[in-house]
Amino acid sequence: MKIVLDAMGGDIAPKNPIGGLKLALETLKDVEKFYITGPKDALEAELDAQRVGQRERIEIVPANQVVDMHDSGLDAVRKKKNSSITVAVDLVKQGQAQAVVSAGHTGASVTAGTLMLGRLEGVDFPGIASPMPNEHGVCYILDAGANPDATARHLVQYAIMGSTYAQYVHGRSSPVVGLMNVGEEDSKGNLLVKEAFGLLKKAPVNFKGNVEGHDIFETELDVIVCDGFTGNVVLKSCEATAKAMFTWLKREIESSFVRKMGALMAQEAFRAVRKRGSYESYGGSPLLGVKGVVIIGHGSSSPVAIMNALRVGMEAVTHEVNPHIQTAITSHVFAHV
Amino acid sequence: MKIVLDAMGGDIAPKNPIGGLKLALETLKDVEKFYITGPKDALEAELDAQRVGQRERIEIVPANQVVDMHDSGLDAVRKKKNSSITVAVDLVKQGQAQAVVSAGHTGASVTAGTLMLGRLEGVDFPGIASPMPNEHGVCYILDAGANPDATARHLVQYAIMGSTYAQYVHGRSSPVVGLMNVGEEDSKGNLLVKEAFGLLKKAPVNFKGNVEGHDIFETELDVIVCDGFTGNVVLKSCEATAKAMFTWLKREIESSFVRKMGALMAQEAFRAVRKRGSYESYGGSPLLGVKGVVIIGHGSSSPVAIMNALRVGMEAVTHEVNPHIQTAITSHVFAHV
């Protein structure tokens, strides 16, 4: 298997992508070659600086443009055909690599994945499946931001794609799907989710019904479907709450010597919770619905996060997620012709 | 001033509302009379059980129906004309009380407030302003769930109403308003927020632009406007995240004796953060845009939360929030005729 990594994607690039690559060379033995895209000289210098070995498993594919946060996703793909993300996605399109990982501009990754690779047949709009830690394992918020103006039909496709992903990658026999809403009662919600509720009841998924914030963490759910605006805002709000809690706790603890000593004794507990809530262990969010494996990493991805994003990409290829999604979507579409 | 409390509203009623009333009798000296609505015998028994004094400041107004969580807001108001919430709102409508507080069914409070009291002139749809703890004070999420299918025009009205509330109740000279979005760049968002962004730039408020999850806690903001679906989901997600973090921390701490000892030494820090993040200190969320003061409490309101909700009601009356909102909305409407 060959995977391509956008070495210029993320807030600390190429340092963290190359650091993640170095870890992946040790842990992901099934990947025979890693392509990395970006300016050749800079990447070679970074590989040397971090003393990355196994160079025979690495190939630099030059890309000299950089997508910045002010480019729109469309501009990034149309006007910067030689950027690290477009060159990376093109390697998947050409069949040279089976998966692409980028922690760069999310809109650019979504647009490049959608326009350059194309959508799976029957998929109207790809969606980002973003993992959240849950009492029972992991729950995917889908869509986490690819499609801010989703229709009810899109939400049904997200349910099918997310369910298929959970089934084949996580080995869940009958993945549980919830619909993000403002209450549990069937009649709740805005026009979009009311329509989606009716469609999901008839869809070929194990639909549990409406769910709320607390269900993200407490309920045995594999997928929570929502429009990309809601999903993105929810994810960022959860992340922000966790950060605010830790900041306030830290400040309170530092206000007294006894508290500081106490916190020192309990520090492993804090570390464990931080780790559990951290994006790092999950690594990346698959963009489901495109003809190829595209994994989107957090902008602030650490080397460990990048390594895990590469692992997520590898797993999607190994478990043949896309052929399975294509089958599930096709049967659903034919059943409803 | 006279305030009416829905004594049957909330998960633990009438116990917690009566407990809150008992506290309010001590702390809210400007309130000459508290009306409480609910079944007469049950309320008298609860007043006796909790040994509530100053009975001359309390008047029970009988209401024998109870709104349950499966009633729709509209049914609750239309079909249960003798419920504790409709009787309570009616006292405001009749001019006997200046504010009403309920920790019961939110949809019923919104519907009763909107249909029975009517909207302020120029207000298309009332919105719930829900307080969130912020590094710089408090930030209101508006709308937090009254109106799940808001239009851009509604969001502008929320901005004006929230801004007026922050100005008169919190003494903020130029309240800062943000628009909840998926990114900070002007071009981000779904169709609704893109349209609202343009209107907010021209509205008579101190509009800061798009904001994201972390801004809720970190940025000096008085109001974050959003549609009621997004606002409700964000609030519940933040609450759920905080709860999950505490649950996980507790579990990690209890797994070792040393950690437990440490946490005991640092326990005041945990308490301070819990208190800061707790809804209890804020008490209630004003329903802005109706002809009367309606304060919506959390279903799980404790006696302290109820007392604070009564305080929020009192403050809205004292600071003449509604006349000020009416002036602000009217000037805006006339300026755009």
From TrEMBL, chains A, B:
GO MF entries: phosphate:acyl-[acyl carrier protein] acyltransferase activity
Compartments, record wording: Cytoplasm
Alphabetically ordered keywords of this record: Acyltransferase, Cytoplasm, Lipid biosynthesis, Lipid metabolism, Phospholipid biosynthesis, Phospholipid metabolism, Transferase
E.C. number: 2.3.1.274
Keyword Cell membrane carried by entry: no
Biochemical pathway: Lipid metabolism; phospholipid metabolism
Catalytic activity entry: a fatty acyl-[ACP] + phosphate = an acyl phosphate + holo-[ACP]
GO cellular component terms given for this protein: cytoplasm
Major location (coarse): cytoplasm
Protein's GO biological process: fatty acid biosynthetic process; phospholipid biosynthetic process
Quaternary structure and partners: Homodimer. Probably interacts with PlsY.
Record's function text: Catalyzes the reversible formation of acyl-phosphate (acyl-PO(4)) from acyl-[acyl-carrier-protein] (acyl-ACP). This enzyme utilizes acyl-ACP as fatty acyl donor, but not acyl-CoA.
Family that this chain belongs to: Belongs to the PlsX family.
Name recorded for this polypeptide: Phosphate acyltransferase
